[in-house]
Structure formats: C-alpha cells, structure tokens
Write a structure and sequence with these properties.
178 residues, alpha/beta, Rossmann fold, 33% helix, 34% strand, globular, purine salvage
C-alpha cells in the first residue's frame, strides 16, 4: 500500500474538538485490515533495527498500535495511562497542557533500569504528552530509543520538540495544518 493510500484511510473531522481544528481520526485506518497491517508493518520496519525489549503505548490509541507492534516484534508491551487507571503501585509524572495539567502513570518496576523501549502513540501534535511519557520512562532508568507515531502534524512542532529533548522521533504519515 502506498503512503497516500494509507493517509486516505485516516478520516478528517473538521472543527473537532473546537473550531479551526482538523481532527485526524485513525480509527478508520485501524478498521481497514490491509491498512492496519500495513501501518504496523511500517512501524515495525522502523523499530526492529533498534531491538527494543518493550513497546510502551500511550493511552488510548497508543495501546492499540503499541500492542500490535509489540506482538509483531516479539517485544513486551507496557501501557502508560492517565492517573488513577492502573491498579497497584504506580509511578507518575505531572505535565502541563494548553489549559491545565495532567498526569501519566505506569506500574512501579514494570520497566527495569536499562530497558530499551520504543514509545508509541497514534498521533503527535505539540508533543507534550509524548515528552512527559519519555521523561517518566527515563526517570525509571529506561533507554528511550525512539518515539513512533502513525500520524504527525508537523506544523505543531511535536517531533521537533522530542528531538530537541534527545528523543529520536518518526511518523508514518504527515498532515499539514492543525
């Protein structure tokens, strides 16, 4: 499948969640068996040479892509969740959003020090959530090899922010604009 065919499977919803935003909905791509398989295959081609031990998926669509990628690569999968969603002891990080703060958590001890990880999410915009997840993983002693996304919105600068923070970043599809 060509990249433009893959991109055509991503639905654009205008003015969501607010006027002026072009929401890029990957659920339509995930629903297409050939598109989903192609996307995961392309992600695996980028991540495989890094030989990660764990794929870490960011809530919520990062769980879908991350789990599929972990399975395809024979790696473990670890979810990074919003606060209060994981049972048992957790470690977390608070981070700033455009209009407030949020918190990400993972199970304490689930990522061993020195573990090689690839961080996965469906889309990168400003990069705030991915930067927080990478910092949380680093605080646990993980080596964040790459942040990998299905979709990049390059006008919002998220990939550049990750790379400025020392995290290699890549995306399969890019859409101009917000």
């Amino acid at each position: 499948m060509k990249i433009d065919e893959l991109a055509a499977l991503v639905r654009t919803i205008p003015d969501f969640p607010k006027p002026g935003i072009q929401f890029r909905d990957v659920t339509t791509l995930l629903a297409d068996p050939h598109g989903f398989a192609d996307l995961v295959g392309r992600m695996a081609q980028l991540a495989q040479p890094l030989d990660p031990q764990f794929i870490v998926g960011i809530e919520a669509r990062g769980f879908i892509l991350g789990a599929a990628l972990a399975h395809a690569m024979g790696a473990g999968f670890v979810p990074v969740r919003k606060a209060g969603k994981l049972p048992g002891r957790t470690v977390g990080i608070d981070y700033v959003l455009e209009y407030g703060t949020d918190r990400l958590e993972l199970h304490e001890g689930q990522i061993p020090a020195g573990a090689r990880v690839v961080l996965v999410d469906d889309l990168i915009a400003t990069g705030g959530t991915a930067l927080a997840a990478a910092q949380l993983l680093r605080e646990q002693g993980a080596i964040v090899l790459m942040a990998l996304f299905a979709v990049d919105l390059p006008d919002l600068g998220g990939m550049a922010a990750l790379e400025a923070d020392g995290v290699a970043a890549s995306a399969i599809i890019a859409f101009e604009g917000h």
